[in-house]
């Protein structure tokens, strides 16, 4: 981390009054703050993400930050528009270091403030969330940026305005330590000592040290050129490299009576002087001393701290061997996609036909991440989980393993062997699972005394009606749920979720409707969403930044097609930091997924579960393309006449004209005329080839797995295109 020079005086036109969309967005924010307190606390502030991801905003931030994260200096992978974020959070700001004092409506008025915008990698944003501790007083809405900075005195460092090297230093191993309280708090909030980041910083520092040592024999001008390259602003982790090198030079120079004279030198000049005045062994001795933070320094500043193992981590992958009907399977969960966003948690949709292993994969995830007591409450029966693909004398193989990879480099591995179940690694907090049969028990006011994950393993398991809990929940929890449901159900400006002593209502400007009077599908969504929110609020104060992992089997169940298309996108909007891993048979549910987040599963000829590679970018497909794609399992959305014509063509796949009667040729040709797009095809030979291609496709396609369907479709398209091109050449 280092200070970044940002032109605060000139801001991109997209976030100025020259842009009418910006003006409208600012007015929407003003309207939000104009609501009375009771109404405002039940809804979230409006925010148009497209404004801060305009081309000119992105270009200026990329140039300013050299395509690096503002905090950790790691390279921004993929499109920068996915990682535009804010220094001050837009809502639910946690303003104390204990994480207790949360202000629900701060700081939405800074949503489009140029000083507040920065590129933050998904990892740093995952840890930063809504943490914004202050040492001063909280300002009122629509205070100016300068007044807020002076009045609030933020404890989180701002890389655009703070001299970072006065607050944080690095050792040769890449470890960051706080020189001041603000530095220590910033390191802790952003988890700047996460293992993968330290490894990368260490490698960059060692590379710089090696180059400097090699440059001892260079001419002065070449040494200066080499150092300018090492310390160039665009270099990854140059903040850590600069910190370490300055520390080494200060170690070398402290015994020198000319120390004060050298203190005003630039870092490059300081290093050049040390290379000139100090022999190699003294330089190396100083480097060795900087290989770990000076203990005296750490003790004097009271900043030694242990590793925080309780931080939340997303699931990044799973490997399964010998679990139920899965002999072997490995899946990545979207963590590594270049399109990963800082705005939303990564999600995964498992798509496949019956028997493709979707439910078993969700069960495996739950088992490998549960604490033992949660597993017991879920009612897991081991004999139901043992592999069935290699029977022994008793009909079962006797071992399996499930390994979960986490985004922070840790893992959790569950293995079963010789009748013993063993969990190695780290169980996951805030994991909620829901099976395909989600029955909600109404009327009961008893507390839930069983695991929420039970329905993943027991079809008869029920989930409590959320109404009694909503009626008795604290104001803070109810308001958090109401804000999330406002987003989930896409309610209007003056529409809210409210309650009295006996009912939960949807409030409209002209009245209110009890939730129990809504449609069954609507109530099903309401109940599932509230149950998820209830589980998350056990550990979090709000849902805008609550982190967790939610498993949902056959997410399309009980839903109208209109909700199938938008449910996952709505859940992500309501709980943007929650990782949803769901399964479905229905391609409609792929709406709301990002590229790389859909995993199409099929069972190969030898029984192994495989993943279709090179899926088309889901974000660019129309609904019709999704429904009829060979990857997603529906053969066609055409009417019955079209399908009948295609089936007739399939009868004549292997028949030549010579082997057919006149009546059969006529039936084939009429079918071609009935099939859209083929009536203009030329002569009898063309019709025969077209019939053969279409017929082969229909006949082979119906009973194939995903992979084979892909091959068949490509072959069919190739043959048909040849006929079309030949016909066009004749014309």
From TrEMBL:
GO terms for biological process: double-strand break repair. GO terms for molecular function: ATP binding; ATP hydrolysis activity. Pfam families: AAA_21, AAA_23. SUPFAM superfamilies: P-loop containing nucleoside triphosphate hydrolases. Coiled coil: none annotated. It comes from the Bacteria. InterPro entries: AAA+_ATPase, ATPase_AAA_core, Bact_Antivir_Def_Nuclease, P-loop_NTPase, Rad50/SbcC_AAA. Residues 344-604 form the AAA+ ATPase domain. This is AAA ATPase. It comes from Pseudomonas syringae pv. philadelphi. The lineage of its organism: Bacteria, Pseudomonadati, Pseudomonadota, Gammaproteobacteria, Pseudomonadales.
